[in-house]
Specification:
- The complex is a heterodimer of chains A (325) and B (283).
- Chain A has 325 residues and is mainly α.
- Chain A contains 16 helices and no strands.
- Chain A starts with a helix and ends with a helix.
- In chain B, a hairpin with a 2-residue loop joins strand 1 and strand 2.
- Chain B starts with 5 loop residues before the first helix and ends with a helix.
- The chains are: A mainly alpha (325), B mainly alpha (283).
- At the A-B interface, helix 3, helix 5, helix 6, helix 7 and helix 8 of A face helix 1, helix 4, helix 5, helix 6 and helix 7 of B.
């Protein structure tokens, strides 16, 4: 009310007399910055500067530097000289690299399939009304928010070669007589990593898909069931088409995260046994940081780039089509 | 309403939901039970049928005492907290300004810049850590908290900007116009009218950013080398394993304690966190 009177009684921009008592000795002059800031372009530039500077300095610049490093034989302590694409060729013919490359695709593919199907199932379950719904929903997200490294340690302990609780459980149930080689066999270890990744990433799918499900009007389901559709048909004919946009975005995010995963493998297997479970990121770390061959390490992580680029490109095109006419 | 039979509800709802719940939470239970189990019980053969792996009759706090007194764990907790808070603050500041500019102001290249920020959102840290380590060294930031405080915003800013931009777009433009008619400057209208309305969005972005930086691993692993400057995830991985020996009791206590702060923040702000999570992919 007071403010309203004030703006009526005094011309815009001049300080009202009451404010003289406040700790601001003189009325605001037609301050130069304030006026400059009225210019939309200038203000935009000003507001964007902090974000753009940080991103340019720590994303764009490292990217350019990474490409340069990958083209040199730099190692820790030596600047390195330009050697063209020799690093890339060398890695391409390296057997550990080939394993890591294949593993990355294998891991991403299966983990994403599991996360999507189980996450969808969980979302459908959570979308119903039941007692304790809120606490169940909240606790389902725990695997996703707890630091991956720490929860992966719990899994590693459960998969321990000598003290595995899972082996104990299966043995006491009479299902096995010899222990399962969870992390001591390359093939088994890869699947264990996929299980842990699924366990960690599924809540993200479930909760985002649940948010999507909640936007679907129950009337649609009712109408469909009146028309005689059973729940299987209702899912494929009503829910799924409406959920597809959210699903695609979530899958893209998850594919990028999984493809570039590092911490899970680093803790669970460390790339072993015998380098059989490396992903591109863990192998890049081993070569680039642990061994100190910066050039080769940078080249290995750049092998991720084409795939990530394709996925991002697909995502942008899809978003644009959604926004477009 | 679709009517269901009772047994159907059990088979298709309660049983699967319980299985999910057990599966999702068992590792946490396992952390807890290992953390309070005395060493003598911890290392028994998997074939020993007299084991009682799922509970213990002699709970102990030895692992916790050891962890707090004989390792730098409290120090790591503080480091992680400090780094996560400051980098979240920086990212929120940058994200607020940039998000506002992208949502409200007309300027050339607005679309391109928006897309560019979205693309950086999708750049995973593992693509850049090797050259970034070089840059951190060149800037003389190696082995200081600033190495992390300045690099974490690279994955937080795009996300905060994206989320807040979406939020600003839902606030009616008329509010600002009214304030401007009343004589507010553009900056004033932004800071005193729009930002207060955006508080729920800011909270969502902040909480999500905080948990992301609490969980970050590879930068902290590569850029920090002194034990007393490490963060919880890196400290637990690299300092609690001596030689090749895993002290599982201590490790699981560390894992549990390191998860508690994020779990607490999360439990107080579940709604905001979920809003941030779902907003982060919708934009």
């Amino acid at each position: 009310m007071a403010k309203h009177q004030r703006s009526l009684a005094h011309p815009v921009g001049a300080a009202p007399p009451i404010e003289v008592a406040l700790p601001r000795p003189r009325p605001a002059p037609p301050w130069r910055l304030t006026r400059l800031v009225e210019n939309e372009r200038l203000l935009a530039a000003l507001l964007l500067t902090p974000a753009v500077v940080l991103l340019a300095l720590f994303i764009a610049y490292p990217f350019v530097m990474g490409v340069w490093l990958a083209l040199t034989n730099a190692s820790v302590g030596t600047a390195g000289t330009f050697i063209g694409i020799r690093n890339f060729v060398k890695e391409w013919n390296d057997s550990i690299f080939q394993t890591a490359f294949q593993n990355t695709f294998f891991y991403t593919f299966w983990a994403t399939i599991f996360k999507l199907s189980l996450g969808m199932w969980l979302a459908l379950l959570l979308n119903r009304q039941f007692r304790g719904m809120r606490i169940v929903r909240a606790s389902m997200l725990l695997p996703f928010i707890v630091p991956t490294v720490l929860s992966t340690f719990a899994w590693r302990w459960m998969f321990d070669p000598t003290f595995s609780v899972l082996n104990w459980l299966l043995y006491s149930l009479g299902l096995i007589t010899n222990k399962l080689p969870f992390l001591s066999d390359g093939h088994w270890a890869m699947w264990c990593a996929i299980v842990v990744n699924t366990w960690r990433g599924m809540p993200f799918f479930a909760i985002t898909l649940l948010a999507g499900l909640q936007t679907i009007s129950p009337d649609l389901h009712e109408a469909a069931s009146l028309d005689g559709a059973n729940s299987w048909h209702r899912f494929w004919k009503v829910t799924w088409p409406l959920l597809r946009p959210v699903t695609i975005v979530v899958v893209v995010f998850s594919v990028i995260q999984t493809f570039a995963d590092f911490q899970l493998i680093y803790v669970l297997t460390g790339g072993g046994p015998a380098n059989s479970t490396h992903l591109l990121a863990t192998y890049a770390y081993q070569v680039g940081v642990a061994t100190g061959l910066l050039g080769e390490g940078a080249a290995i992580s750049l092998f991720m780039f084409p795939v990530l680029f394709l996925v991002v490109w697909f995502q942008l095109r899809y978003l644009r089509r959604l926004e477009g006419p | 309403m679709v009517i269901e039979r009772r047994w159907k509800k059990w088979v298709f709802f309660y049983v699967p939901l319980t299985l999910f719940l057990v599966g999702m939470l068992f590792p946490f239970y396992w952390m807890f039970i290992t953390a309070v189990r005395p060493d003598a019980e911890l290392y028994r053969s998997w074939r020993n049928l007299h084991n009682t792996p799922f509970w213990t009759l002699h709970p102990t706090l030895d692992h916790l005492k050891d962890l707090l007194a004989r390792t730098m764990f409290p120090r790591w907790l503080w480091n992680t907290f400090f780094i996560a808070t400051v980098s979240t603050g920086i990212s929120l500041f940058c994200g607020l300004l940039a998000g506002y500019a992208l949502a409200r102001l007309k300027f050339p290249m607005a679309g391109t810049l928006g897309t560019a920020i979205f693309v950086t959102y999708l750049v995973p840290p593992t693509l850049l850590f090797i050259p970034l380590a070089n840059i951190i060294r060149d800037f003389q930031l190696g082995d200081t908290p600033w190495a992390l405080i300045l690099t974490y915003p690279t994955f937080l800013i795009p996300f905060c900007t994206w989320l807040l931009m979406g939020y600003f777009k839902t606030i009616p433009k008329e509010l600002e116009e009214c304030a401007r008619v009343d004589g507010a400057t553009r900056l004033g209208a932004m800071a005193w009218i729009i930002f207060p309305i955006a508080v729920p969005g800011i909270l969502s972005a902040g909480i999500f950013a905080f948990t992301l930086s609490w969980n970050e691993f590879i930068y902290a692993l590569v850029f920090i080398s002194s034990p007393e400057r490490k963060t919880v995830p890196v400290g637990v991985v690299s300092e609690l394993i001596r030689g090749d020996i895993y002290f599982w009791g201590q490790l699981m206590t560390g894992a549990l304690l390191g998860s508690v702060p994020v779990a607490l923040v999360y439990s107080f702000f579940v709604e905001y966190y979920v809003a941030g999570l779902t907003g982060s992919v919708k934009g």
